[in-house]
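Researcher: Let's run the pair from yesterday's discussion. Sequence first, then tokens, for each.
Model: Starting with the first of the pair.
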Amino acid sequence: MRIVANLIAFQLGWFACVLGGAHGLPWLGVAFAAVIVGSHLWLAARPLVEAQLLFAVAGIGSLWDGLLVGMGLLEYPSGMLVAWLPPVWMMALWLLFATTLNVALRWLRGRWSLAAMLGAVGGPLAFYTGAQLGGVTFADPPLALAVIGLGWLLLTPLFVWIAMRLDGQTVAERAPVTAARSAGARHHV
């Protein structure tokens, strides 16, 4: 049930961000994403660890998208705060995507080729759909989508790897107490 809820929340957030950005209401999607991200962290077994994952992915993803904007491959209609970063609603989308890594996309762990293929197809597909909704325009659509695909081919396995190390959805395993440590503890009591 948590996986289905995670996927639905991500999709609703995606539409809120893209449609808000497309219609000059970039903060609408950001507010919607904040509720979803806040709920995700509230439900996390280790919220601080999960927050590290979300912000690491959002930071890397935002720098990547900023590079695409800087190269002139992408142009966004609203929400740009600085020229070298994507709009605020796109940064919120990166946070939303990161919420799926330890829940709905957990099955990609150790499946690096599959993660790369999913990224190479899913990334450009999401951008193409976003363009159809008015959230982004491409200077040269085939080139932009190819570069986006290459980036997602590399980024998706990286994000899955980071998620394995920053898994705030799983309770941390405690180190086993050795017999010597436990015996020493009894002598000090």
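Model: Moving on to the second of the pair.
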Amino acid sequence: MTPLRQRMIAAMQMRGFSPRTHASYLAAVRDLARFTHRSPDTLGRADLQGYFEHLVIERRLAPASVRLSYNGIRFLYIQVLAWPAVDLDVALPKRPQRIPGLLTRAEVAAILGACANPRYRAMLTVCYGCGLRLSEVLALRVSDIDGERRLLRIEQGKGAKDRLVPLSPTLLEALRAYWRLYRPEDWLFAGRTGGPLSPTVLQKAYTRAKHQAGVTKDGGIHALRHAYATHQLAAGLQVERLQRLMGHRSIQTTLRYVHWVPGAGDGDGPLDLIARLEVSHG
């Protein structure tokens, strides 16, 4: 490992970056070095500009990929090599503003109902009922459930922040039924080895259930988190409260859901989305 790579890893560790951010930022710098055939600490502004022009014009990378590379390289030069700024003339491609195929309550109910495996169905139900990310569902432990206060603790979610999410009575009872069936001791949704399930396993379970339910809208399991947000807003939940429940660092991330839900109201909307599913599906 080169000294520069060690310094970059140490800088990311000091800032509490997630393992995924570590990997993506290091990959961005590695690709830069491969393209230029030089160590990044010997490059100048013109070299960086030429590299990003290569990514945008020649390789035609997706906007998200270019921005991820830009953020990783910018971190190296500003936080590790102490450049005052990374100000390039290359215009990064704008993110396309698309509204995803939002699931209705009936479609969510159909997907959950089509999932025959009780463990996977419980996991998908938690995804929707609490608006969790896939990684957050996989990381849940039995001790994260506070049945007395009806809260679910999300430990070190995105951004390395803990948060508490309300557990509706219907969802809490579903989790109790799941526990009686599987009797997990540590990880709530343990795999065969006793550790957390692989993300691919649950992604495939969701895709299979969606296909069997006849739902043709695009999107993977993250659509359940989108559905949670849009259904809560439609029920009248305040945007600021939704931001806390979703674990968004910026309110701007949460506000995009407002644009997807015309007529979203204010107030303390109902949180028991699972019960509302049963009513709409029944």
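Researcher: Give me one sentence on the second I can quote.
Model: The two ends are 60 Å apart (CA to CA).
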